[in-house]
Amino acid sequence: MTRVAAIDCGTNSIRLLVADVPGHGAHTDVLRRMEVVRLGEGVDATGRLAPQAIERTRKVLAEYAAAARELGATGVRMVATSASRDAANRADFEDMVLATLGRLPDVVTGREEAELSFLGATASLDGAAAAHGAPPPRPPYLVVDIGGGSTEFVLGDAAGVRAARSVDVGCVRLTERHLHGDPPTAAEVEGAERDVRAALDAVRVEVPVAEAESLVGLAGSVTTVAAIALGLPAYDPEAIHGSRIPVDAVREVAVELLSASRTRRAAMAVMHPGRVDVIGAGALVLRVLMDEFELPEVVVSEHDILDGIALRLARG
Questions:
Q1: Measured at the alpha carbon of residue 236, what is the angle toward residues 234 and 237, in degrees to the nearest 5?
Q2: What is the CATH number of the domain that holds 79?
Q3: Domain that holds residue 135
Q4: The pTM of the whole model exceeds 0.70
């Protein structure tokens, strides 16, 4: 058993997983944390990470580094994704991480980001299905990770990844580009949808999505949509993990979120405060991709790139 610490720094949030990982089989969580720091605030417009966003990230990262030390993690890996990958002042961010964590972040390519997401999501699919009394989802899986700055699409099965593509449509990026109203106007929603459809055209070129037997959806936008569709009185990871949400329910939730005011979204019992402003765009991405690729349901995973980082760190 190896205890490791994985840190995922995305466009919207930074997350920590300290886990005990055996040589084979499921890992055991020791600690999971998530904080919304909005590292990618404004980066789509300016091409640079804002100093205040780097400072917000530094404060949380210092807490994560201390927790990893206190819990005795023998290895630590921090992966940084879309926002830092795109930024002209990426060196400022990397210098901060080195000073705070004692090592540089791995600013991964879109391909590696997709592979880590696939590993993390699929390792627990059979167990999650059994917990719901359902048969396991059928491979090949189309794993979709809707992040803040980008969305990863990866097709694969037990043998590994067949194809992957990362596209720059994420919930933060689309919100900042298009969804300015409270609630957004029909024209704003249409503009965001055009961006998503154009990105999906690029995905089709590299990923044979028609081969997928199961859609597996990851990250906060998907899990929040699932929680609303399931009618949960509070956010419940165990109820969400492995749940199957039909496309009609996804459509209904997307309409509800995109037509709701910020106040109404914030009042939803399952809504994390850091997702209030961007959840409409995340739901839109999920709805459009399910319609475009004619996918009847999404299998929802609470495990994602963070779990993939931990598994890869412990097992190589």
A1: 155
A2: 3.30.420.40
A3: 125-300
A4: yes
